[in-house]
C-alpha cells in the first residue's frame, strides 16, 4: 500500500519522491503491532523504491505535512477518517 500510495502521489499530485509514513500509536520502533513493525522493516530495507519512508507517525500529526502518504490498515484508517470528518464539522 505504501508503494501504491507513492505511485498515486507521483501521478496525481506530481510528487517525485513522496514522504511515506505508517500510522501507529507512537513514533518509536518498539511500538505497534507485529504487522506494523514488519512493514516498517520492509520499507526501511527497500532503498530502491521511489519514495522516502519516514517511519511511524501518530494520529495527531496526520495533517501536519510531515508525510505526503500515510499508510494504515482499514480499521484504523476508517477511525482516523471518521474522526477527521467529525472534527471538520
Explain this structure.
It is a single chain. By secondary structure, the protein is of the alpha/beta class. 43% of the residues lie in helices and 18% in strands. It contains three helices and three strands; from the N terminus they run H-E-H-E-E-H. The protein has a three-stranded parallel sheet with strand order 2-1-3, covered by helices on one side. The longest helix is centred in the C-terminal third of the chain and has 15 residues, at 74-88. Strand 1 (18-23), helix 2 (34-45) and strand 2 (51-57) form a beta-alpha-beta unit.
Secondary-structure map:
Elements: H1 2-12, E1 18-23, H2 34-45, E2 51-57, E3 69-71, H3 74-88
Parallel strand pairs: 1-2, 1-3
Helix content: 40-55%
Radius of gyration: 13 Å
The residue ranges in which pLDDT falls below 50 over 5 or more consecutive positions are: none
Number of helices: 3
The coarse overall form would be: globular
In sequence order, what are the helices and strands, one letter per element?
A: HEHEEH
Structural class label: alpha/beta
Which characteristics define this entry?
alpha/beta, single chain, 89 residues, three-stranded parallel sheet
Task: Kindly summarize this structure in a few lines.
With 89 residues, the protein is α/β, with parallel strands linked by helices. It is 43% helix and 18% strand.
Amino acid at each position: 500500500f505504501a508503494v501504491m500510495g507513492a505511485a498515486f502521489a507521483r501521478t496525481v499530485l506530481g510528487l517525485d519522491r513522496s514522504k511515506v509514513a505508517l500510522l501507529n500509536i507512537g513514533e518509536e520502533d518498539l511500538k505497534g503491532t507485529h504487522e506494523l513493525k514488519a512493514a516498517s522493516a520492509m520499507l526501511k530495507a527497500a532503498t530502491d523504491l521511489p519514495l522516502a519512508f519516514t517511519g511511524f507517525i501518530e494520529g495527531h500529526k496526520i495533517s501536519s505535512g510531515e508525510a505526503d502518504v500515510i499508510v494504515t490498515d482499514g480499521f484504523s484508517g476508517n477511525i482516523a477518517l471518521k474522526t477527521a470528518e467529525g472534527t471538520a464539522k
